[in-house]
Amino acid sequence: MVRPSWLRVPALCVVVLLALTGCSFGQAEGATTPGAAGTASPTPDSRRVSLVQRLGDGPVRNLDVDPSGRWQCRDCAGDGVDATGTLNPDQTRRLQRMLADPAMAKETDQARGYKQGCIGVLTSTLLVPPDLTVTIQDCPGEPKPKVAYEVLLLVTQATPAEDKG
C-alpha cells in the first residue's frame, strides 16, 4: 500500500520540473513593480535563481529572481495573490555573490545525498540553472547548507513570504 504522504511527492516534482524548464509567471492584476532605477547591473556570469516552497499540504509558492534583481512570485503569501518587484542593489549584489560561491556546488541535493527527512514541514527547493538544486526542510535538528540557506533567507525576507494559509 502506498503511504498517503508519498502521494504529494509527484505534485512537488511537477512544480520543480516546471521551474527547471524556465516556466515563468506573468504579473498579476494589481501587482506593483518598483522602478528599475538604481538596480544593480547584471554581469555575464550573473545567475538566476528560482525558489519553490510548500508547507505541508499547503499551496506551492514559486519565486523567480533574475540576475538584475527583478522577481516574480506566484502565490507569494499562500493567499493566491501574485506579485513582482525588485531587490535593492545591495541585495542583488549579495545574492549574486552567494550564487557564484563555489561552496554551493557542495550543497546540492546530489552532493549531500539529500533525502526527505520530514513530512508536513516547510520544504524549500532552490534551483540555480543550469544544474544546482538544493532542498532545505525545516526539520528539527536537520543541518542547513550554509550558502544555500543564506540565499533562501535573502530572497524570502526581501519578498512577500509570509504564509497566510
TrEMBL record:
Output this protein's name. Answer: Uncharacterized protein
Q: Which residues form the signal peptide?
A: 1-28
Q: Which UniProt keywords apply?
A: Signal
Is Signal among the key words of this record? yes
PROSITE patterns xref list: PROKAR_LIPOPROTEIN
